[in-house]
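TASK: fixed-backbone design
INPUT:
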């Protein structure tokens, strides 16, 4: 468990550092008119966001976060019930 935690933490830190370095390169590209540095920074920002999304998707799910007792038995009105005739109170009786 500790190995998985450290692996995930290091991967996220790497993704955040790539994102931060990309923003810094992008800033430097605008500060000094340097087109290749700005393009590198923009690419690193995109790569950092992509890595964060991939790591979030691959993260192991916690059993506490998805426990069944937290779910509601009767969720009540849903958005689709509103348009599928779920509310009958607006209809007149014959």
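OUTPUT:
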């Amino acid at each position: 468990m500790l190995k998985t935690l450290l692996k995930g933490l290091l991967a996220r830190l790497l993704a955040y550092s790539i994102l931060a370095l990309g923003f810094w390169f992008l800033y430097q590209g605008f500060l000094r008119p340097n087109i290749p540095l700005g393009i590198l920074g923009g690419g690193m920002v995109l790569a950092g966001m992509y890595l964060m999304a991939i790591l979030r998707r691959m993260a192991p799910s916690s059993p506490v976060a998805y426990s069944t007792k937290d779910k509601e038995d009767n969720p009540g009105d849903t958005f689709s019930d509103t348009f599928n005739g779920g509310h009958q109170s607006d209809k007149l009786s014959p």
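COMMENT: DSSP finds three helices and no strands in the chain.
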